[in-house]
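chain below, 284 aa
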Amino acid sequence: MEDNAIKLSASLSYYTIFSLPPLSIIILSIAGFFFGKDAVRGQFFGQINGMVGNEAALQIQDTIKNIELADGNIFATIFGGIMLLIGASGVFAEIQSSINYIWSLKAKPNKGIIMFIKNRLMSFSMIAAVGFLLLVSLMVNSVMDILNDRLVIYFPDTTIVLFYILNIVILFASTTLLFSIIFKTLPDGTMTWKDTIIGAAFTSFFFMLGKFAIGFYLGNSTVASIYGAAGSVVIILVWVYYSAIILYFGAEFTKIYATKYGRKIIPKDYAVEIQKEIYEIESK
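prediction:
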């Protein structure tokens, strides 16, 4: 509460609305180059559907169709690609800024322009990392489908349970890897891999619990119907908002764990540790 994680989560949900379409296009392009456009799209929107529901998934799908690069001249294509990268990096830039605040880190005043460029480049690398994770997820799912077809012949009764457990383990591992990359690369501080993985695993565990809880809430609430035509957008905002709370709670845990039991978070060369002042507002 002292680090304003609730407000930071609301801010991230706002940025995500504008970053999600271009981010999705870039990720789909990266993974689709290796695995096929149609296969990637089916898997990608299937995952979104499982998280935010069918209406919100269709809204995202329609938005992506509306802003995809059209076949035009080279200049328009390059310019459009640059704008997509800038728009897609906004959500990671916001995550970086928020975790820096939570971890009491700040770039040195005379490094402003250099830091802006570095932050954007780091955000671009996160986009590539997410695309790579989607690609790996598709490959793993393909292998598991092949194994499932083989194993069901010999173990028809236990195959479903076995693959349910495997799916949970793979999801936990991939989510932990993603949070490890976020905690290790985005903030302006460094810590050991041990502290990073422990913090990321903690965040991943609660993120997976939250995924089911948020999905259950959105599936049984009247949020979409209350807001009418804007209901699907509101669902996306709510899902990102609660997911961001879990992410920043994990960042808080990682900071405390590294400070109490690890080797502490050390500011990078271009950053310093700050002391946040807590103001108490007294109501009249």
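The beta strands are 105-107, 189-190, 266-267, 271-273. Residues 95 and 261 are 25 Å apart (CA to CA).
thats it, cya
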